[in-house]
Specification:
Blueprint lengths: L23 H4 L9 H12 L5 E5 L6 H11 L5 E6 L13 H4 L10 H16 L4 E6 L6 H12 L4 E6 L7 H8 L3 E5 L5 H12 L2 E2 L1 H11 L3 H14 L2 E4 L2 E4 L9 H11 L4 H13 L2 E2 H7 L2 H9 L3 E3 L6 E4 L2 H10 L2 H12 L11 H13 L6 H13 L3 H8 L9 H14 L3 H9 L3 H5 L4 H15 L3 H4 L2 H12 L2 H4 L5 H19 L3 H11 L8 H17 L3 H12 L11 H15 L3 H8 L12 H16 L3 H17 L5 H15 L3 H13 L6 H17 L3 H16 L3 H11 L5 H12 L4 H15 L2 H13 L3 H18 L2 H14 L19 H11 L4 H8 L3 H15 L12
Parallel strand pairs: 1-4, 1-5, 2-3, 3-4, 6-8
Antiparallel strand pairs: 7-8, 9-11, 10-11
Length: 911
Amino acid sequence: MSIEPLSWGRGSTPHDDGLRPQSSATRGQHWSAPARSAHLETVRTALTSENSLGAVITGGRGVGKSSLARAAVADLGPDVWSLQLRTGPAGANTPYGCLSFLLARLPQAYMGSPTAILRGITSLIRSDAAGRPCVITLDTSSSIDDMSAGVLLNVLLTGTAKIIAVAPGISDLPADFHWLLTDRRLTEVRLSNLNELQTRQVLLSLLGHRVSAALVNTYHRMVGGNPLLLKALVTEQQLSGNLVLSDSVWTLRDKVVLDGAASLDDIVRSRWSRETPETREVIEMLSCARRVELSRLTAIYSAVVVADMEDGGLLEIDDSDHRWVSLREKYIGDVVRTWLSIARRRELRAVLLGGEEPDPAAMTVEELMAFAAWTNECEAELSPALALAAAEAAVQLFDPKFALTYADMLKRTDRQWVPAQRQKAAAYLQLDLPVQALAALDDISRPELDALDDVEEYARVVAAKARVMVRLPEQAGKVPGLFYEARKRLAPAGEEAAWPEPSAAALNQVTLSEFEYRAFVGDYAGLIPALEAAADPASNPDAGYRMHSAIILMTALALTGREMDALGLMRQLGGQISDASHVVGLRERYSREAYLVLLMAGQWRRCIDVLGTQSVEEPYRLPYGSAAAELATGIAYVYSGRGAAALEPLMSATAQLELQPVQTALRFAYSATALAHAQTGNAVQARKFLAKLQRTPGTTGFVTESLISFCALVAGRWLNDPDAAAGLKQSARRNMEAGLYTMAGIELLAATVNGSDADFKLLEEIAAHRQGPLAEVSRLIALGTRTKDAKALLAGGELAATLELDAVEARCMALAVDFARQDGDSISARTAQARLDILAATVTNLPIVPSSGSPLLTSRERQIARLAGRGASNRDIALEMGVSVRTVEGHLYQVFTKLGVTSRGDLTGLV
């Protein structure tokens, strides 16, 4: 494909761009238009307003100026005659350059003077337009000559045509156009690179199906929001087979590699050829190293060169203490790196390092990953210490394939080989390969394990083995014996020692592993006393052991009915996380467990806040964590009853996980997606994903397995499966007996949509063992349903509304409608019916439909009711809506009947 060279500068990101779907007929020609609807509307207004002469579209190369101009002209329809003008290579040096093809058509009589030529061209344009409005598109890649400018100005001022001028900037336009802009006769529309939302819209336009968030994020960061580069990247990735359609969702199969990407290669070479040798060398260095400290870069290269490159938009320098320098447009580094030979890469590495290997202890995980990747690309050997550190960093950044690459670099004779096997096992677990993970740990022989002088490393191996064994049914029963053997080896030295002595720290590690094991099997209630003692700062100076224990305690409290205590501990730990940042994996574990605590407490909206934005320093690797984040977002939405909102992230997560499973998350994705489809009334798709769940094996922890089962059973309940409600009740009773009152209460609440009095008494009993608003909602629903108390159900619905649990609120209101009408309580009935009518916008498939109530208002009835409630007469409403007065009267009769009101005044506040 042919793509014009691009400048490497970037404009600011617009924040107010609208989105407008594009028809299939115009998608090929105007593929970037969906992200430019606000700009398109501005251009259209400028072309159709009486006092306007047209618009000027400005912006850097590749941002879609010409595409927007074509879309604007096409949008005007066939009744407008369009004339395309373009400046030639000679630009301002050729008289009438952009009008030469019109000049050639003029009779000889018009060639006597510039005035005659002006009249002749104007007349010719009018003749070609044949009475239709005319729009001239002027694409100024270089300045136009004065004679052409004079003719165009005359054409505009005489009303012969309007213009869309396309230029990099205002300064590239003729001087006469400037005063037209000043007088607002011309409207400037400045385009800049796309923001992430606009990138998503363009990808939807290009690909025609859903796109995963990981795909949008990766492509946006690679090309910096440049539409032309984005289209080139999509084409290259489709041809390479890395961009695939998985179950109607476009996603990435693996990391984006630009080796052989001809279109992007041409773009980079066109700019590369115009750079100085010094600038090229800096680009080469940064393409390999990814980022370099400013002080180090200026010590190698001229500070003037670096400053000029920053001013030219080639480099960006962050605000950290290190002042890291990197290429502003990341794709440039990817392309340039493919040009460099192994020898050149090694040469640049030697220049940067100056003969000294960096200390892994002084490097961040991102620095370790960048340095390790560069060394690997140079086909050079990493030192054992750096290889181990890189493997550990890759596990932390959820990049298991790189972790395996670096761990495999260590030899059995290296001192770091045993910890490298631990990292290898962790990477295999991330890839949902527990058998391979156990094989990596079993490769450590008993003599090698017994010969370890580092007792802390021995304890870490035991912990790693326990994490793997619990995921293998045939090995899970051996885990307690593993801990028994570890305690035999570490005692009594560990019990007599005080932290930070190695034996005491090792014993803490084994104890923490036992906590994790008991949590994995669901023994949270019995675990709380030990966790409270371990999390006590007064008795445990080991910060890592104490904080990890407190995080497990936080989850245990949330599951056993002490939701408010769990939230309080969560807030307390959140303020301490930064002080314990040296503890590996602590922040990630805290975020994961905080999500669960909030979900159990009914605060699903805060769950999404906890997930936050994924900030990854190296944006081109396959973001394994993105699928997990989208899955968690979808679960939060589906938990709230918003199935329609949940489908987008869940479908995206499922597509990614089917290509690359991550720690049994695929089963969770299937169950949550089934529930989302069931909530929206799509029984066929819900059953499809339930069938996928049944065909997908896997073992996971108690909490995750409980949530997978919960989603599947609730989906079945929505599908009227008689066994689903029974399954939820059985699980609720088991959890109640185990002291897991929160889980039991949530399951029983879902199971009792059509429950018995005995079920509701049990739900009240469970609620009495719990804390917080969700427990109170359960109690009010149980009490109100059992006693047919509409006011209790209204109170429960209002409380559910504060938690934004729409499906639960709809359940309360539907029951309240029935019970209030049975009691003759018209006020409560009207209130509940009106609230239920509003909820219809988000709850497409009601859990309960009022048996004695009327159906919900239609959209037209709701519109008429609102106008009537504001005091409009029937005649006014009829004129407003374009219907007859009799139609309005008929609809109002239905509204009054459904809402149980007798006058217009009663409608105020109900709709």
